[in-house]
Design a protein that fits this description.
The structure is a single chain. 74% of the residues lie in helices and 2% in strands. By secondary structure, it is mostly helical. It has one domain. Helix 2 crosses helix 4 and helix 3 crosses helix 4. The chain is globular, with a radius of gyration of 17 Å. The chain starts with a helix and ends with a helix. 32% of the residues are buried.
C-alpha cells in the first residue's frame, strides 16, 4: 500500500474517527478476502461478521498499538485471531456441519473446515514472524515481495521465513492438509 498507514493508525490511537474510516476503507477488502480464505468460501456472511468484529478490535486496541511493524500486518493478525475465535465457537465438527451443510468433504473423512482448523492451529504454534509470513502469503494472497514490505524484512529473509514455516508444518501436519491449503 503506497500510503503509510502508520500515521493514520497513530491518529486512530487518539480517537480520530476519520483516520479509522480511512484505514477501514483501505484494508476492508483485504480483511474480507483474508477471512474468506481462512473460513472458506462458503462462509461469506461469517467473513463479513469477522471483518466487523476485527474492526471493532482495531478501534479498541489502537491506543495500545506500537509502531513497530506494518499496520497491515497488525490488522491481519487481528483478522486471523477473530477467525480462530469463530472456529472455537463451533467446537465440534458435527455442530459446524449442522450450521454449514454445504462443506466439501475430502479424504480421510475430514471436512475442509476441519483441515483448515488443523492448519490454523499449527500456524499459531509457529514463531510469530513465520506464522505472519505464511498467513500473508498463502491466506491473504500477497506475493513474497509484498510480504517482505509488510513485515519490513528483506526478500531473502521473507523467503527464509516461508521455507522454515513450511518445513515445520510438513513435520507436524498430514500431507493432504499442506496440499489443500499451501500447494505443497
Amino acid at each position: 500500500m503506497s500510503t503509510d498507514l502508520s500515521a493514520y493508525m497513530l491518529k486512530v490511537a487518539k480517537g480520530d474517527k476519520a483516520a479509522f474510516r480511512f484505514i477501514a476503507n483501505s484494508l476492508g477488502y483485504k480483511m474480507h478476502a483474508t477471512a474468506i480464505k481462512i473460513l472458506g468460501s462458503s462462509h461469506s456472511e461469517d467473513a463479513e461478521d469477522v471483518v466487523q468484529i476485527s474492526l471493532i478490535k482495531v478501534w479498541q486496541s489502537a491506543p495500545n498499538w506500537v509502531n513497530k511493524g506494518s499496520v497491515e500486518g497488525y490488522i491481519h493478525k487481528i483478522v486471523f485471531s477473530t477467525c480462530i475465535d469463530f472456529f472455537r465457537r463451533y467446537k465440534s465438527a458435527e455442530e459446524f456441519k449442522d450450521n454449514y451443510s454445504n462443506l466439501e468433504i475430502i479424504n480421510n473423512n475430514y471436512t475442509t473446515s476441519e483441515l483448515r482448523k488443523m492448519l490454523l492451529k499449527n500456524i499459531q504454534k509457529l514463531p510469530q514472524d513465520q506464522g505472519e509470513a505464511i498467513l500473508l502469503h498463502y491466506f491473504s494472497g500477497y506475493k513474497q515481495r509484498e510480504v517482505s514490505r509488510i513485515l519490513k524484512k528483506s526478500d531473502k529473509a521473507t523467503e527464509s521465513l516461508i521455507i522454515r514455516a513450511r518445513k515445520k508444518l510438513k513435520t507436524i501436519l498430514p500431507k493432504n492438509i499442506l496440499e489443500e491449503f499451501l500447494d505443497v
